[in-house]
Design goal:
The protein has one helix spanning 57-73; strands spanning 5-13, 16-21, 24-29, 43-47, 50-55. The chain is α+β, with helices and mostly antiparallel strands and 75 residues long. Strand 4 (43-47) and strand 5 form a beta hairpin. It is elongated, with a radius of gyration of 13 Å.
Length: 75
């Protein structure tokens, strides 16, 4: 099963960026999103270190809400 995590883009340098989710920052490759207009502040889905899709802030928040519900059920 694959899982992509919603993260917010903080900085961009060429095809690398720093993304943040819940206080955790990671270096992420934008290589798979060539041709997409990604700017700091945007939200992306990150899978194994690669941004794979741009999403809205609302979709990112909804995804995190669902993750929280799943974790609460299994706690």
């Amino acid at each position: 099963m694959c899982l992509a995590i919603p993260m917010q883009v903080k900085t961009i340098e060429k095809f690398q960026c720093v993304c943040e989710a819940r206080g955790i920052e990671r270096e992420v490759s934008l290589f798979m999103m060539q041709g997409e207009d990604v700017v700091p502040g945007d939200f992306v889905l990150v899978h194994v270190g690669y941004a794979i899709q741009k999403i809205s802030a609302d979709d990112a928040a909804e995804s995190w809400q669902l993750f929280d519900e799943i974790l609460a059920e299994n706690a």
